[in-house]
From TrEMBL:
Superkingdom of source: Eukaryota
Organism the protein comes from: Spodoptera exigua
Annotated ranges, domain CHK kinase-like: 132-323
A Pfam short name: EcKL
SUPFAM superfamilies (UniProt xref): Protein kinase-like (PK-like)
Annotated protein name in UniProt: CHK kinase-like domain-containing protein
InterPro entries per record: CHK_kinase-like, EcKL, Kinase-like_dom_sf
Length: 420
């Protein structure tokens, strides 16, 4: 297959996947003589993919890549919706993102305003052997922030500007090339909707209701969180049915700390770059903005900045649209944005409760659970997480985050808009 042997950690990589990786390496014209695979990330960072960092040495130079490898085990693939997730990311990297940047270039948008994403060296959308090979952003000075630490105001604003640019380009494409936009919309698969009509999947989340109730400190809060996670799937279907496509965009779908990298410039946190587009789909734009805000910031920072953040997002949306002769007040009026924040707040609340249970766990305890369920699916993993008590520090983090979310929802009056 190659003039070199793959070295390092190539566990759980199928021969067909290795062949594709070799093909992409050959295309780089490095005349590689050494390729080493290393694990990437920590336990809990990547539930739906086997992610590796590969280092390549050759006669014509060296380079590093990030390789996302789909599981081939049928049980795991079915329960994690692997085919759909990898298909979404394939479509985003090979079709959608390049098209959106092409729109910016054609309109003469300054390069510093261009949408940022990792270069894709190759993507194999062949089930069950999917592989996505990306630029290693670490090599260009990008870092991942600590997922346990809340994002601060300046960082949140940088992310909101990125969202505004990303979302604005959906509106532009919808107006300028409606057939292309429709094609992308159809190709991208709503995995949350698929989960919502899969009974064995929805049942696996029920245990999180009890876990969440056991984390919070008082009876009032326990009543507030009651059934909010298990009710997620009904809300997903309801909101999808009620969705006003006039305001919809292609959304990132999972915009939290680990899926946004930052370039460090002169020891300062610089512009963000979105990664991991497996949850991309057509949806209301607030599902990116408030998803990020309530999953990645703390109560104190939200209290000071929440409404300013929404204003800032809308201002940046208008700025990005202006390059194409469009206005945010026409395309997505601020009062519509405010109404959508309230409309989608109940769904975001349930998602934030769920992620507080999962993402605040200590790396070691997450690894223990994953090791014990190596060949199990996501349904079994979710059930195991729901039935495995958090370690003290993890529970403390989760409690603070959940009670902060409850406090913010009280302060912003969002509970008044809940229907369940």
């Amino acid at each position: 297959m190659a003039e070199y042997n793959f070295e390092g950690d190539i566990t759980n990589i199928n021969k067909r996947q290795l062949q594709y990786i070799h093909k992409v390496i050959l295309e780089q014209n490095l005349k590689a003589d050494k390729v080493v695979f290393n694990s990437f990330g920590q336990a809990g960072d990547n539930f739906g993919a086997n992610v590796k960092r590969i280092s390549i040495e050759g006669e014509n130079g060296t380079m590093k890549m990030i390789v996302k490898i789909a599981p081939v085990d049928e049980i795991v693939r079915k329960s994690t919706f692997t085919e759909h997730l990898f298909h979404n990311e394939h479509v985003m990297y090979t079709e959608v993102l390049p098209k959106l940047v092409a729109l910016q270039k054609a309109a003469g948008v300054p390069e510093e305003e261009h949408l940022r994403f990792a270069k894709c060296y190759g993507s194999q959308d062949e089930a069950p052997y999917e592989v996505i090979i990306l630029e290693d952003l670490k090599e260009s000075g990008h870092i991942m922030l600590n997922k346990y630490e809340p994002l601060q105001d300046t960082v949140v604003r940088d992310i909101l500007k990125t969202f505004a640019i990303f979302h604005s380009l959906s509106h532009v494409l919808k107006i300028r090339e409606p057939a292309t936009y429709k094609c992308f919309e159809i190709k991208l698969r709503d995995v949350w909707a698929l989960m919502s009509v899969t009974p064995e999947y929805t049942k696996s989340f029920i245990g999180f209701d009890d876990v969440t109730a056991s984390i919070v400190d008082n009876e009032t809060h326990r009543n507030i969180v009651k059934n909010k996670i298990s009710n997620l799937f009904k809300l997903v279907l309801k909101l999808r049915k009620e969705e006003d496509k006039k305001y919809s965009v292609i959304q990132h779908g999972d915009a939290w700390t680990n899926n946004i990298l930052f370039k460090v410039v002169d020891d300062q946190i610089g512009p963000p770059t979105m990664i991991d587009f497996q949850g991309a789909k057509r949806n209301n734009p607030v599902m990116d903005t408030i998803y990020m805000i309530f999953n990645c910031t703390d109560y104190e920072t939200r209290t000071k900045n929440f409404y300013d953040w929404l204003d800032y997002y809308h201002t940046q949306l208008d700025k990005s649209l202006s390059y194409f002769g469009l206005k945010a007040d026409v395309i997505y009026p601020k009062d519509q944005l405010d109404a959508d924040v309230k409309k989608y707040s109940e769904l975001i609340f349930g998602i934030a409760l769920l992620t507080s249970n999962i993402l605040n766990r200590d790396v070691n305890e997450t690894q223990e659970i994953l090791d014990s369920m190596e060949h199990s699916g996501l349904t079994e993993l979710m059930s195991s997480l729901a039935n495995t008590k958090m370690k003290d520090e993890s529970e403390k983090r989760a409690r603070k985050r959940i009670e902060g979310i409850i406090a913010s929802y009280n302060e912003f009056g969002f509970f008044d808009h809940f229907e369940t």
